[in-house]
Write a structure and sequence with these properties.
The complex is a heterodimer of chains A (about 180) and B (about 400). Helix content of chain A is about 40%, strand content about 15%. Chain A is of the alpha+beta class and about 180 residues long. The longest helix of chain B is centred in the middle third of the chain and has 52 residues. The chains are: A alpha+beta (about 180), B alpha+beta (about 400). Chain B: It comes from Leptosia nina. Chain B: Pfam families: EAP30 (PF04157), Vps36_ESCRT-II (PF11605).
């Protein structure tokens, strides 16, 4: 489970009701986004499934007997999407990817590691990047495959790598 | 059978219902007829026979003027006359010329029989013989459309459409009811047309306004004449700008006077209750004070809408949630919000019910106060299955 310190809002009942007053709401949503990001980061999770959300301690606090409704979670995630910190996986909007680093940040992180290890102009498989021994200890170790792909695409757009597929594996060549 | 006539089962004017019986078969003389298992109804002037349910509905049935009956007899039913009197024999005089068509044109027999399956009801027999003996038609002749009943005297008797044969008070009540209904309907139909006329007139007025403004924009002064002409057309129809009249329908002296009264009455009261009061409470208080001549809620609403026009120290206010209140002009939202938020802090959290108890106001007003406080950012809400509660707005106050 996640080992984070819960913020004071977590124990404040109104935190679990989306506030109608716009100023209050902004603060509330900001606090939620921070909490979500931290939680996922520390538990190395990247995906939120709204339908399963009722069980996670992130969205419900039994000690004050409050939890976020599914609409509330959706509101928060949509707000995050506006800032590029989350994206729905499918049209039903029940499964979301959360980028506790933005895709750009991930991309840059990977590229700097690549440069630091002299792997420019060579090919790596995505598996290597995610699960390889060499990347253990890096933040992107264990990164969700979809997010990794998306991050690499941002690099691709900048011309720093190229995604390719061979032998059932996906690989990437860095320049 | 040829003395019977096909007539609708309605009571004519002057005719009274006497008795009815059921499971009656008609015999033409000694011959059976097709008219079996019917009901008979005895009136002061006639004997009616119809299929079950037809007579109460006023449908066509067989009608025999009692005038024809000059003698009654009882006959025993069954073989060999065993088993109690079951049939009444009515000996009839000759058919009158000009009678309505009936089940038979010519009959060889001069008597008919009524056969009662359940036996002759003695009361019915007595009533029948009394009716025949009374010869009420000689004193109060019936007049129905084509055929003037025996012993002349033209007199219109048009019974109301669908009149059912009912006796006594119930019948009178029902006919009064039906009259009222008919009047109601005719009034509403008349006003329906008027409403349509008003709507059309509204359209015309708005069209004329748009046209005149368009012309004015394009060509300066020429529009004046046209507008005047439009207005004169409308005036000639008798519609003096119906749109504004509608909006200011309440602009009559009555409502202005009423508004003045309310304002005088409610100033003191409002100061007592903290400057604000829901309209329902206002209505109760006003009517209590007036004593006899009570006002309706619409009157109160219309009068309150006029409060600004008479420079009253109070006004009508509608909250976003829809609640209507009467509010002193000196009443300020910010002060309410401040006091309420202080109360919330003292109590940790507040529900509308709790606040109403503390402040001694109605729950509706307490809710409005909490909403106002929230609107000004001094409280935040907590909605759960436990209900609605408000907390101090730590989101904004805590860094």
């Amino acid at each position: 489970m996640a080992d984070i310190t819960w913020p004071w809002q977590y124990n404040f009942p109104p935190f679990f009701t989306i506030q109608p007053h716009s100023e209050t709401r902004q603060k509330q949503l900001a606090a939620w986004e921070e909490l979500i990001t931290e939680y996922l980061k520390s538990s190395k999770q990247y995906i939120i499934d709204i339908r399963e959300s009722q069980n996670t301690p992130l969205f419900s606090n039994p000690s004050i007997n409050r939890r976020l409704s599914q609409e509330a979670i959706l509101t928060i995630l949509e707000d995050m999407a506006r800032c590029g910190r989350a994206a729905p996986v499918d049209k039903s909007k029940s499964v979301w990817e959360v980028y506790w680093h933005s895709l750009d940040e991930w991309g840059n992180m990977i590229y700097s590691w690549v440069s630091a290890n002299g792997l420019n102009n060579s090919v790596c498989t995505l598996y290597e990047l995610r699960e390889g021994e060499t990347t253990e200890g890096e933040e992107f170790h264990g990164l969700d495959i979809n997010i990794l792909t998306k991050a690499l695409r941002t690099l691709e757009v900048k011309g720093k790598c190229e995604l390719m597929e061979f032998d059932d594996n996906q690989g990437v060549k860095f320049f | 059978m040829d003395r019977f006539e096909y007539m609708e089962a309605r009571l004519c004017e002057g005719e009274n219902y006497i008795k009815r019986d059921k499971n009656v078969k008609l015999y033409d003389g000694d011959d059976k007829t097709q008219y079996v298992d019917g009901e008979v109804v005895l009136t002061s002037h006639r004997l009616l026979w119809g299929k079950p349910g037809d007579i109460p509905k006023g449908l066509i049935c067989l009608s025999l003027y009692l005038y024809y009956v000059f003698c009654l007899e009882e006959e025993n039913g069954g073989v060999f006359g065993l088993g109690g009197p079951k049939r009444i024999i009515l000996h009839l005089g000759p058919a009158l010329p000009g009678k309505r068509p009936g089940p038979a044109v010519i009959s060889t027999y001069h008597f008919i029989k009524l056969s009662f399956k359940d036996g002759i009801d003695a009361a019915f027999y007595k009533a029948l013989s009394d009716a025949v003996a009374n010869k009420l038609w000689e004193r109060q002749p019936l007049e129905t459309n084509a055929f003037s009943s025996p012993t002349m005297s033209p007199r219109t008797s048009v019974s109301p459409i669908g009149a059912k044969i009912r006796s006594g008070i119930v019948g009178i009540e029902r006919s009064i009811e039906e009259q009222q209904k008919a009047t109601d309907e005719s009034i509403s139909v008349a006003f329906k047309d008027l409403k349509k006329l008003m709507e059309k007139a509204k359209d015309m007025v708005s069209i004329s306004k748009t046209i005149s403004t368009k012309i004015r924009e394009k060509q300066g002064d020429i529009s004046e004449d046209d507008t005047v002409r439009f207005k004169s057309y409308l005036m000639s129809l008798g519609i003096d700008d119906p749109v504004t009249r509608d909006a200011f329908r309440s602009d009559s002296d009555y409502y202005v006077g009423l508004a003045q009264q309310i304002s005088d009455m409610m100033v003191a009261v409002l100061m007592d209750t903290g400057g604000i009061m829901s309209l329902a409470d206002v209505w109760c208080r006003v009517n209590r004070a007036r004593g006899l001549e009570l006002i309706s809620p619409e009157d109160l609403l219309n009068a309150c809408k006029l409060l600004p026009t008479i420079d009253a120290p109070m006004c009508l206010r509608k909250f976003p949630s829809g609640a209507c209140v009467l509010q002193l002009n000196s009443h300020r939202d910010e002060e309410v919000a401040k006091t309420t938020s202080q109360l919330i802090e003292e109590n940790g959290s507040l529900t509308p019910i709790k606040l109403s108890q503390i402040e001694n106001v109605s729950v509706l007003l307490a809710r409005e106060r909490l909403f106002t406080t929230e609107r000004l950012g001094l409280a935040c809400r907590d909605e759960s299955i436990e209900g609605l509660a408000f907390y101090p707005n730590l989101f904004l106050s805590k860094v």
